[in-house]
Every structure is written in C-alpha cells, then in structure tokens.
Design brief:
The chain has 160 residues and is mainly beta. It has one helix spanning 3-23; strands spanning 32-34, 37-42, 45-57, 60-71, 78-91, 94-104, 109-113, 117-120, 123-126, 129-133, 138-142, 150-152. The protein is globular.
Length: 160
Amino acid sequence: MNRITSRMLGFVLVFVLALAAVADAAQERPIEVTSERMEMLSAPRRVLFSGEVVARQDDVVIYADRMQVFFREGEDSVARILAEGRVRIVQGERTAIGDSGVFHRDQSIVVLTGNPRVYQGKDFVEGEEITVYLEEERSVVTSREGVPARAIFHPREEAP
C-alpha cells in the first residue's frame, strides 16, 4: 500500500472506529450518551437520542443533533447506528464531519454523507460520500457530478 493511500485510509478509519466503538457499547466497554431527550421505541426496536447528543467511549466522542441506535429483532445487539445533524466524530487530532453517518454492523460498512470530510491535523479527504468497507480494509470517496473527490496532504518532516 503506498504512503498516500495508507494515510487516506487512516483518515477515513477514524469514523469507522468511532461508530464501531458505539456499536460495541452493549459488549465490554461502557459508553455514556447524553442528550436533551431519550426515547425508547418498539417498532422497530431502537433508542432515539435528540438534542445536543454526545456519545463518549474511551477517547472517542461523537456529537450529533440526533442519534438512533437500532437493535436486531429479538436481540439486545446493535444492528445499525444512525447519527444525523451536524455529525462530528473526534479522536485525538482526528475529526470526521458530515450531515449524516450510518454504521451498518451486519454489512461491516460505514457511510458518511452530507458534505463529509475527514481531517487529521491540516490534512483531509472529502467528497459526496465516504464509504468504508471494514472487512475489506478499503474505503471509497465518491463525488457528485462536476465536483471531484479531493484529498489534501501536507508534507511531513522526516524522522532523523
């Protein structure tokens, strides 16, 4: 894997790690979700958080206007997580933003839409949609007609 491809994959993976961390909340590590309102719904079975949603697990923080956690039918395990409205995922100096983000656990994919951009320091990738295929260790940044996908990488100092 060349250096630029490896760096771009690292940028996009911050989003994956953050949403995967939320999905694993029902397993070993605790997660704290705060919001102005929390509603449990039964059809389909899900929990809806709204108003200044902040989800924290370890060093990952997800901010959104709304977040829905969907459960598998008849189980307590997470099937899908949907974050909407001013989505921002922060882990150290890495940040992913967009209008919407979805983690599909069964398909092992993450999709970030609505002007998605993933930053690490001054470097970033952006496009119409950023999709990460977790099982394949690959990501795709797509563009809309007339506006190309874009990546900016600044030179790094070489270690002595």
